[in-house]
């Protein structure tokens, strides 16, 4: 059982619940997640990036380009 505050006035054996925190992913990680959902392979992403941004790696994209790419992946 986790720490019980000295001023605790509830039941003698309180049932504590863990609350899961929200983990915010980086844009690069969000791209990977969306690629997975879309069923894309790395080679498909590289081709798309080359055709649309003249870049072959997601790390070369600007923040704005990464956001656009994520939105594109969510739409397909």
Fraction in helix: 40-55%
What composes the largest sheet?
none
List the helices and strands in order. HHH
Quote the distance from N terminus to C terminus: 46 Å
**What radius of gyration results from the CA coordinates?**
22 Å
Residue ranges: pLDDT <50 for 5 or more in a row? none
Number of strands: 0
Content-based structural category: mainly alpha
Strand percentage = under 5%
Helix count equals 3
Mean pLDDT: 86
The shape, in one word, is rod-shaped
Explain what the structure shows.
This protein is mainly α and 76 residues long. The chain has a domain of 49 residues. 49% of the residues lie in helices and 0% in strands. It has three helices and no strands. Helix 1 runs parallel beside helix 3. The longest helix has 13 residues. It is rod-shaped and about 65 Å long. The termini are far apart.
Structural features:
single chain, 76 residues, mainly alpha, 3 helices
What's the short story on this structure?
With 76 residues, this protein is mostly helical.
Set out the fold topology.
Elements: H1 27-38, H2 42-53, H3 63-75
